[in-house]
Amino acid sequence: MQGILDPRDADAALDDWLSFQEAYCLRPREGLEALRRFGSPAAALFGLGLVREGGGKRSGARLVLARAGIRSIAVGSPAYPAALALLEDGPSLLHVKGEVEALHAPAVAIVGARAASAYGLGLARALAISFARAGLVVVSGLARGIDAAAHAGALEAGGKTVAVQGCGPDRVYPAAHRSLADRIAANGAVVSEFPPGAPPRGAHFPLRNRVVSGLARATVVVEARARSGSLSTALHAIGQQREVFAVPGPLGVATSTGTNRLIRDGAQVLLDADDVLARIGFRPGSGRVRRATSEAACGRVARELARAPASRDELSRRLGEPPEALALEILELEMSGSLIEDRDGRLHLVADPASLC
């Protein structure tokens, strides 16, 4: 693909972009304004009287990128993602490990709590499987909890996923996700707008979040506390005029507070993956998206609860399935009014199981 800067090439343009990134990565809107005014990163640095980084440092950054197999894409190049080119504060330079093509495919972002419940993790995974099977790229932030479950679900389905990092492209944060990041790079892309060697800093993550939402046609929030980075991603999506969906949760549960407030404030309620596909007008070639687990499994949940009510853990034991594998089916039954949960957390089927799924 044209427009990709390879650090192994003796190209002065990459050095100029790396210097410009060092100056403007925390001020992306100002960076784009400088590029529009002066026409190139070198002219902007010179015209604004900014000192370029020393040649030794630039050579070191180039070597780091080359050793890690990371390529770079500058704004305005043919390889730059069209979805990000629409943003007024898009990254001036993106570092990509993996498939650049994954940044150009239709995508949905899935984000949520780091300290997520088993139910939330299972739901994120199931949604990612459904989206991936439909042919969408799943975008998230490589964080613990919902992000990791979303990436894993897309990989499990044999789909593509993109991880947007809040640190330099040569690092992985959290470090425990290095193996996951390697799998993502082999089946999608790991991207960063920060210079090589940049540590994960608090100021980086709101910027990271706008890229997550910016790459996607829709953002889905699965579990979020009242003050959550996931809500930041949702707000960016709203500002970017993208679709926002939230999964409703029980009142009084901390990880449902943020998603319930999003719905109260106008986000769309997510009942299943098809809600998102219909809203963004995406039509997979194979027709209607199948649920992440089979319809037989959904029927099995209904039939088992028709025998006797059960908690999620008890239902898991009775069916011999982990709770996360049943999460999406339980949610669908709840949203259709076919299932209710009592104060003790026991699930009761209130519809004829033969008519369900």
Keywords:
357 residues; alpha/beta; Rossmann fold; Arc Repressor Mutant, subunit A; 10-stranded mixed beta sheet; 3-stranded antiparallel beta sheet
What is the oligomeric state here? single chain
Strand and helix order: EHHHHEHEEHEHEHEHEHEHEHHEHHEE
Q: What name does the CATH topology of the largest domain carry?
A: Rossmann fold
| CATH architectural arrangement of the largest domain | 3-Layer(aba) Sandwich
Describe the global form: elongated
Strand order of the largest sheet: 1-2-3-7-6-5-4-8-9-10
Helix content: 40-55%
Report the structural category. alpha/beta
The percent range for strand residues is: 5-15%
Rg over C-alpha atoms, rounded to the nearest angstrom: 22 Å
Low-confidence stretches: 285-297
For the record, the count of structural domains works out to: 3
Q: Sheet bearing the most strands, described? A: 10 strands, mixed
Number of strands: 13
* CATH class (first level) name of the largest domain: Alpha Beta
Count of helical stretches = 15
Mean pLDDT: 87
* N-to-C span: 44 Å
